[in-house]
């Protein structure tokens, strides 16, 4: 089934922005990119999803190994005791974690990456728990070659914290025929996205599947 994802602004990266634009998804691929009115008129049978803000290619998380193997992502039921942010260093060492809690942390870490518009992940898969969770998530695994250094306070779930612009933060530009990996952020434009960060993500599409939405 065709799905049209429409937003006030599509930022393909590598091509001109498309005001009142849309991306057409057919299965797990991008079938078309362009003005919403034109795409919708040619595809009256398509399902339409309307989003606020900007639609961009999916983001790349350089520090997947660190975030999944050197951080504990608290269960929401632990928020009162541990908070909601990833724990590392001495805070992590103070926890007594069995295999089940580690596996849950890895799954939650991946879910939180999806909530930040991440669709590609630089991660080593020598740990069976990490490998199983990453494969099941559907995230694209990429090389860590060229990754930026880790900040003193550790890497962040928000890929923009590394300091790159949109072009430097995405995995690949939107393109017809490419895998349908993209995200939507509730901001006005690219400058606002960089200022606000990936926490403004309202939807993430991975291989054509809507894997995160806030509305």
Can you walk me through this structure?
Helix 5 packs parallel to helix 6 (128-137). Strand 10 and strand 11 (209-213) form a beta hairpin. The chain is elongated. By secondary structure, it is an alpha/beta fold. The chain has helices spanning 36-42, 64-69, 79-82, 89-93, 99-114, 128-137, 166-169, 190-196; strands at 2-10, 18-26, 29-35, 47-50, 54-57, 59-61, 118-122, 140-142, 182-185, 201-206, 209-213.
Shape: elongated
Query: How large is the share of residues in beta strands?
Result: 25-35%
Can you count the beta strands?
Answer: 11
Mean pLDDT: 91
The protein's oligomeric status is: single chain
Characteristics:
215 residues, alpha/beta, 8 helices
Set down the secondary structure blueprint.
Elements: E1 2-10, E2 18-26, E3 29-35, H1 36-42, E4 47-50, E5 54-57, E6 59-61, H2 64-69, H3 79-82, H4 89-93, H5 99-114, E7 118-122, H6 128-137, E8 140-142, H7 166-169, E9 182-185, H8 190-196, E10 201-206, E11 209-213
Parallel strand pairs: 1-4, 1-5, 6-7, 7-8
Antiparallel strand pairs: 1-2, 2-3, 5-9, 9-10, 10-11
């Amino acid at each position: 089934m065709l799905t049209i994802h429409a937003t006030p602004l599509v930022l393909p990266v590598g091509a001109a922005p498309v005001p009142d634009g849309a991306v057409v998804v057919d299965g797990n691929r991008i079938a078309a990119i362009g003005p919403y009115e034109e795409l919708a008129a040619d595809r009256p049978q398509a399902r339409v999803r309307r989003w606020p803000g900007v639609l961009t290619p999916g983001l790349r998380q350089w520090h997947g190994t660190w975030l999944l193997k050197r951080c504990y992502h608290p269960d929401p039921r632990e928020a009162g005791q541990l908070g909601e942010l990833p724990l590392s260093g001495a805070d992590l060492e103070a926890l007594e974690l069995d295999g089940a809690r580690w596996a849950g942390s890895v799954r939650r870490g991946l879910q939180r990456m999806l909530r930040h518009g991440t669709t590609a992940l630089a991660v080593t898969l020598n740990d069976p728990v990490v490998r199983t969770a990453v494969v099941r998530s559907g995230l694209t695994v990429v090389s860590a070659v060229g990754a930026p250094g880790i900040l003193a306070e550790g890497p962040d779930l928000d890929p923009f914290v590394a300091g790159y612009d949109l072009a430097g933060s995405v995995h690949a530009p939107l393109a017809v025929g490419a895998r349908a990996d993209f995200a939507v952020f509730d901001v006005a434009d690219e400058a606002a996205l960089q200022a606000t960060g990936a926490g403004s993500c309202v939807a993430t599409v991975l291989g054509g599947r809507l894997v995160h939405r806030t509305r």
